[in-house]
Each structure stands twice: as C-alpha cells, then as structure tokens.
Fold each of these.
Amino acid sequence: MTSLPVALLLAAGFLAPIAIVAIYSIMPARTFVLTGSVTPENYVAAFTEGYWRPLMWSVSGALLTTILCLLLAWPTAKALKSLEGYRATFVTILIALPIFISESVRLFGFSLFLMPAGGILAGTMDAAFDVSIGSILNTRTAALLGMVYVHFPFVLFPLLLGLSQIPEEQREAARDLGASNWQLMREIDAPLAAPGALIGALFCFVLALGANAEMRILGGQSVTVITHAIEQRFNYAQDWPMGAALTMLVIAITALLVLPVFRRIDIDRLIRR
Amino acid sequence: MVEASEPRPGILSTHGISKSFGELRAVDDVSIEIADGEFFTIVGPSGSGKSTLVRILAGLDRPDSGNILLRGEDITATPANARPTCMVFQSLALFTHRTVGENIEFSQKMKGVARDARREHALRMMEVVRLPREYYARPVTQCSGGEQQRVALARALASDPEILFFDEPLSAIDYRLRKILEVEMKDLHRRTGKTFIYITHSLEEAMVMSDRIAIMRSGTLIQTGTPHEIYRRPESRFVAEFMGEVNIFTVADGRLAELGIAAAQIEAPYLVVRPEYLRPAGNGDADFRFRAEVTNDYMLGSRTQFHLDAGGTSLVAELPALAAAGIAPGDVGEWGFDRADAVPLAD
C-alpha cells in the first residue's frame, strides 16, 4: 500500500500526459480536440513531409555524442580509479560540479568563450599573441562540443561505478596468466565494466536525443533537431496533432533502445556492491 | 644404490628480499632456496608478510630491495605476465563472466592458440584435476566451492608454469572438503612434478602436504625444515606453539620451575613437550615424573586429550584411545615424559 502515492503520482504526471499525446497524435491536423475522428495522417506526414531530416540529425547527433563520451570516459574513469583519496575526490567534484548549474547558463558561457573577435578565446588570442583565429560558434561542431560537454558526466559516473566493481584479483590473475595491457582491457575490464558503460551510454543517448539547447545556443540553428521541430509544431504552427505524432516517434525510438538494455542488465547488482 | 639424499637442483632463490608499506616492514630480508619439484610451504599467522612475499615471488609486487633468481637468472624486474609462474589466489579470482572452459583456456588464448587446440588442452587439464567434461561449457558461477577450486587449479596448470604459487586457496573451504583437497593437492604435485610454493596460516595443512616448511613471523623466516624437523625440533617457542598445543616448561637453577622437579643437564632456558609425549607414569618408567590431577577429557577420535593440573600448572596430554581407557576427570596420579621427547629451546 505504501507504493500507492507513488503510483498515483506516476499515473498523473507520466502516464496521463503520454496518453493525451498519444491520442492527439491520431487526431486530424490542426485540431484541438481529443474526440475527433481517428486518422493516421500525422504519422504519414512525419515520413513524407521532411520531418525525417531533423529526426536523423537528432539520432545521429545523439549517437555521435554517446560514442565520443564513451571514448573520453574510458580513459578518464581508468585514471580516476588509479588516483588515490583526496585527489580522486577533487577531480570527481570538478567533473560533477557543473551538473548543479543550469545547462543554459553553461552553454551561454561556452558561447561567450567561443565568440568570434571579442569572445574569450579569440579575444585573448588576439590581445595576448596577436593571432586572429576564426570561430566555430554557430556550427554543428560547436553544437557537438556542447553536447559532449553536457552529457559527459552521465557516461563517466556509471562507467566509473562499473569499473570500480571489477575485483582487482581478477585483473591480477589475467596478468599472471600472460595477458598484455590490451588483452587485459579486452578480456576483463571491458566485459566486466560493460553494464556500467551501457547504463551510461543509455543515459547519454536518451538525453542527447531530446537535447536542443546545444543546437540553439552553440549551433546557431545550423540544423533543426527533432525537439526543435516538435516545439515549432506545438507553438508557432499551432499543429498539436503533428507535434504529438513526432513526440510519439521519439518515444518509440527511445523505448526501442532502452527496453532491451534494461532486460539485459541487472540494475540492482550494479547499484549494490 | 640410488643416492636419495642427493640435493635436487635449485629452481627459485631469493636474496635479501625486503618490502615495506609505509612504516611497516612487511617482508624483511628474506632469502630462500627452493628446489626443483619441491612442495614448499610458507606458514605464518595473518600479518606475518607471507602473502606479500608470495606476491613478490609471483611478480605481482616489486620488492624494495633484494633479488629473485629463477634457475640462476635474475627475474626481479620481470612482470608477472612474462614469468613462467602462475598463482592460485585465495579468492581463486576466477573470471566470473566466463565459462569453466574459457577460464581454463585463458592463458592459451592470450598466447594465440587456436580454438580447437585450446579446447583439447582444457579438457586434458580438467581430467588432471578430475573435473567432469560436461563442466566445460558451464558458467563458473554455477560451480560449487570445490569445483571452483579445481577450475582455478586447472587454469593455473593450463599455462604450464614452472612454479605454481598458492595463496591460501583452501582457507575459505569447510573442513571436510579441505581435507580432501589437501590430499588431492599433494597427489597433483606428485603427478605433475611441478614446483609448488604454498602459503597458509595452518601448520597442520602445511604438515600434510609439504616437502619443506618455512615459518614466517613479522616479515622474516624464523625456521625452515621438513615437516618432521619443524614438528620434532622447533627452534623457538613461537614455532613450537604454532603447531597446536604444547607444554612449555621454564628451566631455572637446574629445575623445571613449574613442576619443581630436577632437570639436570638441561642448559636451555625452556623445555617443550608435545601433548602425545606426556603419559601416565605410575610404574616409574619416565625420565621426568610429577603428580597431576585430570581436570577434563576431550574425545578427539583416535586419541583422547586430557587437561592436567600439576600443582597449579595447566598441562595438556594426548593418549591413544586404548591407553586413555579408564582415565577420567578427578583422577590423581603420576604422569611423566622422557628426556628424548623433550625439546630444549633457547627462546
């Protein structure tokens, strides 16, 4: 019975809105009632009217972000694991602290840093070294940089947890049995840290799929991501059913990825020690 | 006639190995010579530095000073993965994400041996440690404690090491299974002919299996010898007391202080007598005799242990079942032991 309040909260705050969005997605375009005649036209439009482009940008951006974050997080996690006591704590705090600051504020800071001519980086280079450099602000590269920067901790910490649970003696045994550094990573570290890495990658991908501030603030709208397209449908175009259909597509892609992973990983085992 | 006493050639020797952790000198100037094919056991209480010593020998830790020679060649700086040695860990350190077969094949896989040959080899090793073939594809996590023990042994043997190290592999196993595995370990040693270097805190376990035993205390080896020598001729009270209960008498002014009886010709300050050498001496045939009261008796199976009170001094005696018949708590009588069975100790 104690779980009843939580169940009610989830029903009201999570299931009900999804149900409403689901129903809207099969209503006629540009209508505002949930009782119209059922139609698949919004889903057809999603695939015929060019919405696949923003969807692809979001999916490929999220994939790329996840891969880059994993590649960066692996050596970082290994290094953090080898640090001792207060040093490890210090570096961990440095990485974790930005999470407590609003994402937009951080991205605007990043934007100031990257601004051309008078920006922090370009301005300093000009004033101190008399070197004129261009700026990557308002490009896809800047947006990707922002994506990696924002989502990195979500990959690092689960991965660190996964790595820290590898018994040191198994690594020593592998080494004693002739494993080189590379073999040690492939045979012991990677498979044993895989649950942590998978959880981190999942966090990263799902968050990155829904991200749009990075593209808006750092990417200068050089491409339209799916979240931005959805926002436009709901606000500017006042076409709620179309926005709802796109939303359902994003939810479907997320579920397609998340459910198989959760079926394979024993989260309880990862969190307890 | 074969010269049985001809010394076997040495395989591993250390010279002045030391290692400290902060202020603690875990291993302090240890020098050992281990013969090829020997079952050598290092015994010590926890914290004596025996695990650190074996980790250094296996190449998992580097000593602060001293060197290690394998067949005369200096391997002090050789890392574990390049030494022809293998360690069986206390935790066994089996690869929990792999099957029995994958565990056993690991060293061969690292060398790039083809899959079929690896499997062949693994099955042979499983035969050596008496593990049924059908375990090959089983996850190690589904094996019992004794089976995991065998997997660890087979995995170590599969790398065909010249020396096998064991860091208390039996300490977490229940008594009955441990007794079985001790015998198997000794048997395995004989069948493989490899050098075994074994770490344990149980001198009893060491006695059963070893060719030679070294007793370690506070980072140093205080006595090395055959099980017989260690048992019969301990060189210090520490060694004497390490192997079960003993009776230690103080020699002062030509008398055994605790019993108040004459102890002529004994120069050493202490005299040690094992429980099995104390016996009823009502007929006066023992070299040293004293009166004692039986306070307790404990049935040990083939023997019975008696606790004695000799004028305020507690002693312990063990008699074979036949000789123990008829002795009960409350009995007061003559007990004694012979000069030849008592070991004089300097410290």
Amino acid sequence: MKPELRHIHRRIWQLWALLLPLSFGLAVLVLPTKVTQPVLYDQMAVKTSKIEQTQETDWLRVQIRAPDEMMPRQLQIVLKKPLKVPVAQVFWQNVYIGRLGAKGTHYFLLDSSQVANPPYHLDIRDPINKAVLQTITFHP
Amino acid sequence: MSNTYTTVQWNRQKRRYDKIMVGGMALYLLVFSLLQLRFYPNVTPETLIIRATGTLAFLMLHIILCIGPLTRLNHRFMPLLYNRRHLGVATFLVGATHGLFNLVQFHSLGYIDPLVSLFISNTHYLSWQDFPFQVLGFFALLILFLMAATSHDFWLKNLSPATWKKLHMLVYLAYALLVLHVMLGAVQLEQSLSWIGLTGAGLILIVGLHLSAATLEKKRLLAQAQADAILEGFFEICQVEEIAENRAKMVFLNGENIAVFKYKDSISAVNNICRHQHGPIGEGKIIDGCITCPWHGYQYYPQNGQSPPPFTEKLETYDVKVVNGKVWVNPAPYPAGTERPAAIF
C-alpha cells in the first residue's frame, strides 16, 4: 500500500474508533425494555377456564381469560393463519408485552396494573416495517 | 475479460484454502442451525436461513478484516492473506443469500416492488431507534458486490492498483454499515445480550487490530526514514516548531556554518555567511520572499541562495528534509546558487 493510502487507512480507523463505539453505545441506550415474560405456546400454556371477552378478525382471535386460584388474568391470542410478517410484536395499553410466532395459540399474563385503566387497547405491530397490523379495543 | 486472463489460477494452495473455507462455512451453518432448533424450536426455515447466513457473513467479514492487520503485526499470518479474495467473494455470496431471503420474506408480499418496499416501508430515517436498518444492510451488500465483481486480476490491472485498492477500501464503510445494521436491527428486535456482547467484542477486535497495525507501521516507517536520513548523511537539527516563521536556526555541522530558514510551510538551508561583509545571514529574516542580511540588507532567495537580479551574490545551499516534524540537514554543500527543493511540512 502506498504511503498516502496507508495514511487514509489510518485516518479511517481512527475515525471509526470514535464513531463506531459511539453508535454502538447509542444503539444500546435506545434498546426497548426487555420483555421477561415468555411467549407461551398452546402446548405449554395453563389456561384459565373463564373467558371474559372475545374479539375476532379474519386472521386472529383474542380472548381475555379471567384469573383463577392458580393463574393471573391472561391474554390469549390465537393466530388462525400464519403471519405474513416474520416478526409481530404485541402491545397492551401501548406497552410491549411480547411477540407472536408460528400459527397457533399464544398466552400473555396480565398483572393487575395492566387491567386497571379500561378501555384496553391491543396493538399488533410489525417492527420491521413500522406498521400496525391490528388494533383491538376491549371495553369492560 | 480478455482471453489473456483465466477465471481462477488454481494451484494446490488455493484448493486447500478453499476446502478449509467451505468446510468451515458448512460446519458453522450446521452448528448454528442445530443450536437454533434447540433453543427456538418454533423457528421457521426461512428465518433460520436468514439468521444463519446473516451471522455467517458478518463473521466472515470479521475474519477478512482481521487478516490484513494480523499479517502486518506478524508475518506468520501471511498464508491467510494469500487467497483472501476467495474469502471475500464467498462472504458476498453468503450475504447476498441473507439479503435475498430478507427481501422475499419482508418485502415481497405487498403490492409494490420489493426493492422499493425496502426503502419506503419504514421511513423513520431521522429516528435512531426505529431507523430502517435493512437499508444499511442493502448498501453494505452493494459494496461487497462491487468488491466481489472487481476482485479479479483483470480489474486490478485495468483499474490500476491504486484505484483498485481505493475501491476495495470501501470494505471499511461496509463494515461500519453492518455494525449499525446489526445494532439497529437484530439487537433491537431480540434485545439479546449475547448479540450485543459478540458485536461489541468484534468491534473492539477489528478496530484494535487496525489501529495497532497502523501505529506499528507508522513507527516502522519513521524509524526507516530516520535510518535512511542518517545513511544519506543528514543530521537531526530541531523540531519544526522551534524555528519562528520567516526566521532561521543556525547550526555548525561538519565545519559548515548553516542557516535553516522556515517560511510558508517550507524549510530551506543556505550558508550562514553573507557575501557582502560576512554578516550572520541566520540572524536576519525573510522579507518579500528573500532572506535579508541583518547588517546591510543584502538579499538571497532561500531555495537557491541567489540574490535577486541584477545582484549576483550567491550562497551555498544544502539538502533539507522533515521527518515526523523534525528538521534534518545534510551539511554537504552544493555550489553557490544551486537550486534545492525546499522541505515541505
């Protein structure tokens, strides 16, 4: 490599040494809050018996299941068709609570604070294309 | 491409290199797929391919970027450099597979062209968190394509080595784009500490290696330049900053009385004795582009020691160079009035 190219090369990496860690740090700072609640699939879920509300569209059925002695209140989402997007995020009252995966049933646990202020808004969003795939509102 | 070029000049080493490369890639894909199926049993085949090829291409780019500085730090890594171009082309092919599957899965189900969809489906270009990270991957892939397409000797010869090398230095931009692609894409979606840790470790490794190699090479070149200067009979005089603008530093070297002048980002050296009454030229200053003797105002050009016409006085001149901010002078005098190039700093 010629000295001038070597010089350019050194300058590029000095610049990268500043910019890339900065960008890396900023990307970590804006990470959405980690969802600790696992997505439960049908075969893993322990569903409660009583259904409080049901709403249905052509591609999903959403139910709020009442709590019992064993389990808190549950949000149950049944995907009737495979998703047309690879990633779909579930937002309850504008708070990210988890993701939908393959066709089938998904359960999300709702604690008392999440059902304290009706009406309840459920959004299913495509994070890649920044699109809202479905919005459903539950009135108590 | 003309018939004077062959597609690949195969030999035993290249075949061995490529076998190891392909074997390593296959092993990675196998192990990655098994781990994905173990930890994400519901993963679809398309997603598995996207993840496997994306991580493999990123890993291969890391290996490629490590090879250059490693060989400069230690020549034992030289065999890795031997067939790096094949590794680069393979990286592009794996990256292209990742890109293609992404384009199909994320953008081919709508009514608009998938490539158009890539750019307009997410328009949060001013948001850091929601930035359309796929666009970053697209441009990185475009650079890798450009490099893979021009990797052959035909392009090296016809573009000229300097242009070819400049073009291929775009890989550093591709790397930066891919770091952002991962950090604003997969990491934001998965929020995985493993991905953050691995990408961060890769970043430290790549930047660290390149800076270490560049620093070491700069030191080597400097030591070489200084050794060359000594061999050529030069003496180190002072730092450039020690000489005031339009003024001189006076030195005695090998019996020569020399005035070293600094002016307009240049350094020149002439004999320190004025031809008029042997006044100390070096105590004077440069006025109107001429060294002016402090005693009676006799003037000389710094580059050739000649008095401006119609005067005919002349001073001996000397070779000067600036190495790493230091002024070096060769005390072997040139005949009075000989033009010598000024050292630019």
